[in-house]
Amino acid sequence: MQKSETPSEAHPGPALDLDLRPPVRLEPWAITVAASIALATVVPPISPMLVLASVVVSLGAMFSKGLVPDEWRLMALLASLFVVGGTAVAALHASAPDPLEELGAIEPGEVSIVGVVASPPVQSGYGHRADVRVEHLWHDDEEILRGGGVEVFVPGLDGVGVGDRVRVDGEISLPDSAEISFDYARYLSTKRISAVVEGIGASPVDDERGWIGAVHRRTDTALGYGLRPKESSIVRGMVLGDRSLIPEEVDEAFRKSGVTHILAISGQHVAILTALIYFALRSFAVPLVPRVAITLVLI
Description:
It is built from 13 helices and seven strands. By secondary structure, the protein is an alpha+beta fold. The relative contact order is 0.11.
């Protein structure tokens, strides 16, 4: 007697088409593009280093299969494309007309500004000098602008630190670039500052102080312990980027020797840049030894 076939044997179903290859990870592409736009916008000089780092990662993934895991390899190969795209977007944004610069061309222009202090206030011939990131700007009793950066010269910034919100009333103008030896306007543009405000007064907007300013003030106090005033002023310049207390003859010696950049690029800036490069490479699963080596070379 012949054995009857089961339905599954008589009519076999289609074979399952399973793709058992390792999955490809492309989720970080949006983070890579967004981070490139943000970094290239906030710190434009970092753009070439970002592109170079991404090219190094892409070339490493191309010629060394063991550099990154298989699921991250395609992402590493395309990293330079995403970074170049992000920096290009930031460059296009930077080339757009600056409304603050246009407003500064109306001299004198009386304005009121509410913004966040972006640099430690230092003594100047006219009260204090500080960089302020604009949150609100009023002209002729009408709010006309949000965003951008200005350098303010105003009395009343005693006790104010980085991250504190202040209100400044004064006259806005373009930076002076008449000096042949030093283009002050170009220098300010490297800090994303488009105009100068000579204020008649400044006041904190609220009682809540920025945590960055608190850390800065504590660090400033700590750097003064155990050092003579001259040595302390140089250490403050190297760590905090604050040159206000450096004696004129020492500052002149730094300029003549061509090492003023040691004071202009503070330890905080170097630490932030190092962390950004290190963790960017880590996000692409670059092994520890190549990650540290690439970071040191770029820094």
